[in-house]
Amino acid sequence: METLLEMLDKQTSDITSHRRQAAVEGLPIFLRENTEKLFSRCLATDLDDEQTKGIKMGVLTVLDDDDAVINIALVLEETIVLKDIPDTPTALAYLFGLLYALNMEFPKDIRYTFETIQHIFMEMSTNCSQRVRSFKTKLLNQ
Prior knowledge:
By secondary structure, the protein is α+β, with helices and mostly antiparallel strands. It has helices at 2-11, 15-30, 48-52, 88-101, 111-121, 130-140; strands at 39-43, 57-63, 69-76, 79-82. α5 (111-121) crosses α6 (130-140). The longest helix is centred in the N-terminal third of the chain and has 16 residues, at 15-30. The protein is globular and about 45 Å long. The two termini are 14 Å apart.
């Protein structure tokens, strides 16, 4: 991870936003969850139905042919509910807020990622799973 962040530092002028994006997209990896269940990518030339097919909930990044980001959107139940979001960390915060406001359950495939956001970042409650507690201990010991 350090090597990846160092390469990003050398290549980009807006280091803070790239580090924030790397941290958010890397969170499911640290928690041993599949990032593809939360973060999806598609080309702008794909049909709308194909872009959201099979996505229960997550962040969809629409790319052009040069892999440049055109749009970031939120998907709930295979439907785009919010688009033109400025960056991935903001999109994840919006998604968490929607899930919380609509009182929806976290998807089982990425449960620990949302639990980490709820318990560690937002400090909304104290009791959490052992995996999230272990991750919090690792963060505090660094």
